[in-house]
Specification:
Blueprint lengths: L1 E5 L2 E6 L14 E3 L2 H8 L5 H6 L4 E3 L2 H6 L1 H11 L12
Antiparallel strand pairs: 1-2, 3-4
Length: 91
């Protein structure tokens, strides 16, 4: 997902498959079905539980990600409070 500032609004400008080769020593790739992202944003469960159950797929430096799981969970909960229309995020 790529999020950008467009005319003072935060807009999802790209969602879907990774189009660039990531450097997995520093980059993360996380993906899940849209409904799973929405569930995490609503606080139904956190990203750690989602990874454990296979609802959230992950590639990258696992130890680094584990150290940042608290802030990532806070980010998801914050994003869950923002009104959204999942049909408007283009691939």
């Amino acid at each position: 997902m790529k999020i950008q500032n467009k005319d003072g609004k935060v807009i999802c400008t790209l969602a879907g498959e990774v189009t660039q080769k990531p450097d997995l020593s520093v980059d993360y790739i996380m993906y899940a079905d849209t409904n799973r992202w929405m569930e995490m944003g609503k606080g139904q469960y956190g990203p750690m539980w989602a990874m454990t159950t296979g609802r959230l797929k992950f590639s990258g430096p696992m130890w680094e990600a584990m150290k940042n799981m608290g802030p990532f969970n806070s980010f998801l909960l914050l994003m869950g409070k923002v009104p959204s229309d999942t049909k408007k995020c283009n691939r």
